[in-house]
Every structure is written in structure tokens, then in C-alpha cells.
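Target chain:
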Amino acid sequence: MTAPMIAIENLKKNYGETQALAGISFHVPKGQVVGFLGPNGAGKSTTMKILTGYIEPSAGSVQVGGINVEHDPVAARKRIGYLPESNPLYDEMMVQEYLEYCADMREIPRSERQSRIQGAVDRCGLGPVRHKDIAELSKGFRQRVGLAQAILHDPDLLILDEPTTGLDPNQVIEIRNLIKELGQEKTVLMSTHILPEVQATCSRVLIVSNGQVVADDAPEKLVESGGQIQVELCPRTDTAISGQDVREMLTGLPGVSDVVAAEPQEDGGQAYLLRIGETDPRRALFDAAVDAGLIIMRLEQQRVSLEDTFRRLTTKEG
């Protein structure tokens, strides 16, 4: 059986009395592009630094392609290309010089260096700036240089920490397309706060909060499972309806997790916002309204966005 590209089991990390990771576990198979999401301080960067061997875990195990990162960090790093959020570059070097330096650090055989550098330059669109000083480059080209050094040694795993931060919309699209192209042949773990990037780029989403994984699914699944329904009810006759009775009726419907009063549009009506899970309560709602002598004047179902799901899972809201 082929080992997963990333295998993390019960990973914990403490900084003094502060617990950054509280037992994270997940596997990533070869060839998957994974969005790694979470609020600031959730443990994303800590997990990535442990994966790359930059810091050691307090407990748990991390393997890259079957290699234990803690036991054999050098072998594991050879399988990884890493673009940190800070993207440290040597401004006084030309792009060509910097890539030659990275090739030397990666111990790429001299007979292969120029072909590897040429491949990275072509792949990342660095031809026009190849002989320019890095200090002269725009933010977009600097990110391309960072990606070029990350793929120079042809790694199996790319770890990208906020790769599109600070880019203008055109640059974001360019880097997004490059990541999607790289994802066709490599495993990619990408941390970002830009949720549309995740939906456009990733086949899977991991959400962490308070040092733990709180969601793990395809982006479309995370927005399918849940949503809300706006409903407005009026009595069949002039008889007033009890708000408490209506709320109890709605709360008891299958799939309804919360009921919030809203502003009605009809005189004598009552409006509510129903938060729902995977079970669709609309048929049960119709039957319950008929039994209670109520007319459904308005019914609107709204699907949640990835942002809604992210907020629900990483805050106390909902």
C-alpha cells in the first residue's frame, strides 16, 4: 500500500504554557491540492513549520512520503518545496544567481542545474526578469521567484503559506493558475485567508481552529451541508397566532438547528430565519403549517458560502 504524501497523527505543539496544536490528525494522498484554513493563531503555520522540519513537535508524528520528519529531517526536506509567507529572498542577487544558489543548497548535480533552473524559469514565467536584481521586481514576480525555488529540485510536496497575499487581482489569477498547473503533478498544501482562492484551486479543504481540525471535505460539500431558510407564516383566519407556538413548531422540524425571528412583510404575519443542516425541512414545514392552520406566505432557501461555513466553525457564532 502506497504511503500518503502527508501523514500527521495526534500532532501537538506547546510554546511554554500556550498550546498551539491540540492533537491534529490528517492524511493527504499523492496528487491532491488541499486548502489549509483557519483564523490567525489556529495552528496553520505551526503545522507547516513542523512538516518542513523547521520546528519540532511536542508530541505526535509527522511523515512525508513515509519518511518520519523528526527522525530523518534531511530526507523529508528533499521531498518538499516550501514557500513561506515571508518569502525570504536576497534582494542583491539577480534571479539567475539566486536560483543557482538555491540549486547549490539543494545539492542538485551540476550536470542538471541549468536544465532545472531553465525549467523553473519557464514554468514560473521568469524569462523577462531572469537577469534583473530581485530588489527591482514587483510583488508578483517575487512570488514567482519564491515558487521557482520551491520547485527547483522537483519535490513531490509543495507547502505554500499565503502564496497570494499582497498581490493585485491580475497577479492573483496568474499565481492561482500556476498553482493549479503544479497541482496536476504534485501534492500541494496551501494556507490562505482568501476563501475564493480555495474554491478555485483546491480539491479538498481542511479547517483548523484552536489547534484542532474542525472540518475536512471537498469545498462544494462544505457549502452544501447547511444553509438557512426564510419563512413567513400567516393564519388562515383572522385569529392571531402565538409566536411561542410557532417557534416551538419550527424548532421541532427535522434538520432545523436554530430559529431566529425576522421582520415580517405581511400584516399579522410572523417571519423567521431557520438555520438548517443536511436534512431539508421544507416538506415537514409544509405539513406542520397545514396542521397548525397556517399559510406559508414566503419561503426562501439560501445556501451557505464557504465563508459562512468558516465563520460558523471557527467562531462561537451559530
